[in-house]
Every structure is written in C-alpha cells, then in structure tokens.
Write a structure and sequence with these properties.
By secondary structure, the protein is mainly α. It contains seven helices and three strands. It has helices at residues 4-8, 12-24, 29-40, 44-56, 75-90, 95-105, 110-123, and strands at residues 27-28, 60-63, 68-71. Strands 1-3-2 form a three-stranded antiparallel β-sheet. Strand 2 and strand 3 (68-71) form a beta hairpin. Helix 2 (12-24) crosses helix 4 (44-56) and helix 3 packs across helix 4 (44-56). The protein starts with a helix and ends with a helix. 17% of the residues are buried.
Length: 124
Amino acid sequence: MGGENDRTKLFDSELKVMNVLWKEGVVPAKRVAEVLNKELGWNKNTTYTLIKRCMKKEAIERSEPNFMCRALVSQEEVQEAETNELIDKVYDGSADKLFAALLGRKKLTAGQIERLRQIVEEES
C-alpha cells in the first residue's frame, strides 16, 4: 500500500480535491464535486476519479453513508514535503537560497519581515 511519501506526493489536480477537504472538513464527495465544479468547471466524474486516486494514496478516507470524505494527511504535511522537494530540486538542498530568492522577488511588509524574523529565531 501507499507509504508516507505517496500520501504527501500529490499532483496539482489532487491538491484541488484536498484543498476542499482542508477547508471544509469531512464532507460528502458530492459537496467536493459541487465546489470544484463552481471553482474550476470540473464535472462530477473528474472529481470522483481524483478522490479515488487520493484514496489509493491513502490521503483520503471514504465512509458511508453518503460517500463521506476525510483528509488523512494534513495541509502542513503536504506543504512541508512540497517545500523540501522544491529546496532539493531547485535550490541544491539549500533553504537559505530559497529564502533569498523569496526575499529578492517581492516587497515584503514590515509585518511579514517581523514574522520571518520570528521564524528564523525559533529555528535557531
């Protein structure tokens, strides 16, 4: 069956499904399909196929009645895995290169800079 890596390695389309569950909690598959139809124009079959793929990866658990869907992996776990992969793939495993790229890319507010300072201090 799927391991920890499978659960956190999700494709963009699968992340759209997960985002609905992260926002709304435990909901029927029908609700997930409604949200993604409204947001992205997806039909019900597309959404149900993606839910099944996430179930295979053990990222979603389904229960009856009403085909209720629940996320088995947190948004934080997926974000951490994706960030680590980005750092390894694009920044030679160097988090400070990613940090420098982010800082150089856009103007940050004083509040955002202060928050980053707090994060750095917590980590050291």
